[in-house]
Amino acid sequence: MEINKVYQGDCMELIKDIPDSYIDCVITDPPYNVGKNIKNDNLTDAEYLKFMSQIIKDIYRVCKNNASVYIFCSHKFMSRIDCCLQDSGFNVKNRIIWVKRSGSRGTKRGYIPEYEPIIYAVKSNKYIFNFDKVRVEYSESSKNRKDSYNKKKGYYWKPNPNGKLCPDVWLDIGQLHYAHPERMIVNDDTAIETQKPLKLIRRIIMASSNEGDIILDPFMGSGTTALACQQLNRRWVGFEIEPKYVALINKRLEQNNLHHFSNTLLSQSANAESLISVKRE
């Protein structure tokens, strides 16, 4: 299977072409089975869980022994997808709570949903986790906290200049609103509702992979996983069943390549001008 390419088709069939123990990390945002007009999003609960169980088994097969998996899911099916992962052989490390600050419409029959679960699982205890790459900012109280002596460990605590270790509740990355410049629009002027922020996917990739690793996204949607991989020097494979989304992904990646090429030329031009100025002096 060719690397750095999005394949149009059903992931259940396409994943069969990936060799065993080939993928370093999986990041995916599958249908939530909430009745949207997309494939596998309007199933019975039993049908949906059978579908998710099978794709998770396939993911386990293609993952290397040190691979990690991140699956976005709904509140309703979080616990059952968690069980599917464990039944397939994965070890669930965290149920990450992404607080989206979505501004969802209110309801008087329950609490307003403000978060989305991300299940983080690993295939073995040899998994990659680059904790220093994903540090986050300290709270204001921690920033203002005076150095304190830890009697048990025998040293003064000081905040790390690069930030604190990343917790499993993510408060610092909001959902993309409809007017956000990052938001992708398909050819019928419809926004991709489920598009995830680039910063969110970049954090996952930096934490659980290294440069040159291969990332798989079986439900590619707007192509944010592929774009983040491009930016972070990871290789990738993506599947997307909707032809219009595949066209959108390819266009998005092409624009990113042109932007990168343009910035490189500008940087080289600036360096050349600097050298000429030095020689003149």
Secondary structure: helix percent: 25-40%
Q: Strand-and-helix sequence, N→C?
A: EHEHEHEEHEEEHEHEH
Distance between the termini: 55 Å
Main β-sheet, in a few words? 8 strands, mixed
Spatial extent as radius of gyration: 21 Å
Q: Output the structural class.
A: alpha/beta
Q: How many beta-strand runs?
A: 10
User: What is the count of DSSP helices, taking H or I runs of 4+ residues?
Assistant: 7
Low-confidence stretches: none
Overall pLDDT confidence: 87
**Strand percentage, roughly?**
15-25%
Q: What form results from the Cα inertia axes?
A: globular
As laid out across the biggest beta sheet, the strand order is 1-10-9-2-3-5-4-8
Keyword list:
281 residues, 10 strands, alpha/beta, 33% helix, two-stranded antiparallel ribbon, 7 helices, single chain, eight-stranded mixed sheet
Structure description:
With 281 residues, the chain is of the alpha/beta class. It has seven helices and ten strands. The protein has helices at residues 11-14, 45-62, 78-88, 140-143, 198-208, 224-231, 243-280; strands at 5-8, 23-28, 63-72, 91-99, 115-122, 148-150, 155-157, 169-170, 214-217, 235-240. Strand 2, helix 2 (45-62) and strand 3 form a beta-alpha-beta unit. Helix 2 runs parallel beside helix 3, helix 5 packs across helix 6 (224-231) and helix 6 packs parallel to helix 7 (243-280). It is globular.
